Amino acid sequence: VQLVESGGGLVHPGNSLRLSCAASGFSAQDYYAIGWYRQAPGKEREGISCVSVIDGKTTYADSVKGRFTASWDNAKNTLYLRMDILKPEDTAIYYCAIMCDPGRTGQGTQVTVSS
């Protein structure tokens, strides 16, 4: 499976951004979950969301709950992360991860929240 994240960029605090993760070669018969991680400079990688591709159930880290929404499009084999009310502390490289495993990610996309 190849994961390609996109959609990152520079945004002002309070604004929104949507990330995408195209998962080529992905099959729900083999992998029943996919999620998002992020890593800020000088910090450990943080799991922020995990989505079941079987029933769509999604979990979130407390740090993003209520602001971020993850969703899986089965027809496009693409995972999305809608990020609202962005804060400077959301600045990080964002990765999608097969089976919500931090050891199985793409190359990531940079998100910078700054005024």
Quick tags:
115 residues, mainly beta, 6-stranded mixed beta sheet, 4-stranded antiparallel beta sheet, 10 strands, globular
Structure summary:
0% of the residues lie in helices and 50% in strands.
Question: What this model shows, in words?
Answer:
With 115 residues, this protein is mainly β. The protein has no helices and 10 strands. The strands form 2 sheets. The chain has a 6-stranded mixed sheet with strand order 2-10-9-4-5-6, with no helix packed on it. It has a 4-stranded antiparallel sheet with strand order 1-3-8-7, with no helix packed on it.
List the helices and strands and how they pair.
Layout: E1 2-6, E2 9-11, E3 17-24, E4 33-39, E5 46-52, E6 58-60, E7 68-73, E8 78-83, E9 92-98, E10 109-113
Parallel strand pairs: 2-10
Antiparallel strand pairs: 1-3, 3-8, 4-5, 4-9, 5-6, 7-8, 9-10
- Let me know the average pLDDT: 95
Please summarize the sheet with the most strands. 6 strands, mixed
Order of helices and strands: EEEEEEEEEE
Protein structure class: mainly beta
Report the sheet-strand fraction. Answer: over 45%
Instruction: State the separation between the terminal residues, measured CA to CA.
Output: 37 Å
Low-confidence stretches: none
Oligomer classification: single chain
User: What would you call the shape?
Assistant: globular
What is the helix content?
A: under 10%
Cα-based radius of gyration, to the nearest Å:
13 Å
- Counting H and I runs of at least 4 residues, what is the number of helices? 0
Number of strands: 10
Give the spatial strand order of the biggest sheet. Answer: 2-10-9-4-5-6
